[in-house]
Amino acid sequence: MTSYFKQHPTADGFFGEYGGSFIPPVLQAEMDKITQAYFSISKSHNFITELRQIRKHFQGRPTPVYFCKTLSNQLGGRIYLKREDLNHTGAHKLNHCMGEGLLAKYLGKKRLIAETGAGQHGVALATAAAYFGLECEIHMGEVDIAKEHPNVVRMKLLGANVVPVTHGLKTLKEAVDSAFESYLKDPENSIYCIGSVVGPHPFPLMVRDFQHIVGIEAREQFLEMTGELPDTVTACVGGGSNAMGIFSGFIDDEDVALVGVEPAGRSLAKVGDHAASLSQGTPGVLHGFRSYILQSQKAGEPDPVYSIASGLDYPGSGPEHCMLKDLGRVTYTTASDEECLDAFYRLSRREGIIPALESSHALAWAFQYARENSTKSVLVNLSGRGDKDIDFVLEHYGIRELQD
């Protein structure tokens, strides 16, 4: 890694003014153990060798970079996809889940605990638990359980205990609350495996480092395919793990523009109709870390959030994203539900690839970029496949015709 990664975060987990660890002392003691273990164990030859073997022989890495010939010809520009949908379990989430599971094994933990929204993190962690012979407990909001039924079935088939969360909006934020509460009951035997680059230190650091493989591969592959770097790299942003994964490969390449795409949902003008925390939020503390948060004026309580994509409906974002926004290194924009759906159908029909609704936000922005920049290249992190979304999309939106 370059000096950027050695400088960020600081020793106490801050990316600029964001991040850190704002948690009870009893939990902080456990976080300190995890931090110490991460820096000692994960840098060892044995850990790195085992993780590389897992990635190659179990996950199926490296995933390819794919040129969208049909869409590039139709829209203009040159559109490329980093195919994380071809990673085992169908999304980028397994990159950090196998790393966290391996760390849990070295620490002698017996149980993995996590939250999930779209279910991709839950499936990935259940997979890691099965692989390492550990117990697994996944907390998921009732709304998302109904919306993402295929992934709920997969988690149960893999042996996970899926805990329905019935309070509040019954989505991702409440699932995080519930998972933290469960972890606090037995931190000695459990490890909380957060599903993104969020949470108290060291999780934003750990998840970014485990996802860094996406950026490393993508940079090498794009250079090999084209002889140059992409003009722009884009990814969807909720918590932001897939985006930090691919951005990290290009962070020092000043000529490569980085664009994160948040969910504008039904409307950016109305509280509760979107989840664009970097675009609309203000600094505050949520789930043990400082971030841009969509929050009310009442004691810094988070606002209700919404997105058609369950994996993006979170009222905050990763602290590293917040720092990169302030520094101007990454531009953060939005895509609406309608733009997301158009991209979902368009990639399916024109390239034979069904994307996750989360990833479709980045696709929507990339397709518009291609229309406006006929000589430029854009690399999209296709962070997940859309198998989990097809029942929901067909039930609520049907089979749409493209409006070319």
What would your notes on this structure say?
Helix content is 45%, strand content 18%. The longest helix is centred in the middle third of the chain and has 24 residues, at 203-226. It folds into two domains: 16-56 and 93-204, Rossmann fold; 60-90 and 212-397, Rossmann fold, CATH 3.40.50. Strand 5, helix 6 (120-132) and strand 6 form a beta-alpha-beta unit. The protein starts with a helix and ends in a 7-residue tail after the last helix. The chain is of the alpha/beta class. The chain has helices at residues 3-7, 25-41, 45-59, 69-75, 94-107, 120-132, 142-147, 149-157, 172-185, 203-226, 241-247, 277-280, 319-327, 337-351, 357-372, 390-397, and strands spanning 14-15, 18-19, 65-67, 78-83, 111-116, 135-141, 161-165, 190-192, 232-236, 257-265, 282-286, 289-293, 330-336, 377-382. The strands form four sheets. A six-stranded mixed β-sheet has the order 3-4-14-9-10-13, sandwiched between helices. It is globular and about 55 Å long.
